[in-house]
Amino acid sequence: MKYIKLMKVDNSTLEKIAHLSRLYLDEKEEGKMLESLNEIVEWMDKLREVDTENVEPQTHMTREVNILREDKVIEHLPREQGLVNAPKHDGEYFRVPKVKE
Q1: Comparing C-alpha atoms, which of 37, 29, 43, 28 is closest to residue 10?
Q2: Could you give the C-alpha distances from 37 to 4, 13, 17, 30, 33, in angstroms and in order?
Q3: H-helix segments, 1-101
């Protein structure tokens, strides 16, 4: 199968990506980012050379199914014991500084 070579990322494309990502780059950062993005595009282009004709598509990296432990009800830590080392609490909950007004 013949593939079209992927395009290079130019300054215009980088500016669009930065705008959409809400990134603010100075000239030095733009140069590094442009170089990094083009390396990624080249790497992706290189992956096209891999023969995947007889490879089944996968949605997961392994064939493992539900490798998590079974949920079991166990004795929990009593509230009073959990609050013992809390710097601030009101007897029921941890008290923490407000992070949003």
Answers
A1: 37
A2: 18, 10, 11, 10, 6
A3: 11-21, 27-47, 79-83
Per-residue pLDDT of the chain (101 residues; tens, 9 = 90+): 555 667 789 999 999 999 999 999 998 999 999 999 999 999 988 888 888 889 888 887 787 777 788 888 998 889 889 899 899 999 889 999 888 87
pTM of the entire predicted model? 0.50
Token pair recorded at residue 25: 């780059």
Question: What does the block give as tokens for 61?
Answer: 């990296």
Give the integer Cα–Cα distance in Å for 86 and 94.
7
- The CA–CA distances, whole Å, from 39 to 1, 35, 49, 81, 89 equal 23, 6, 16, 54, 52
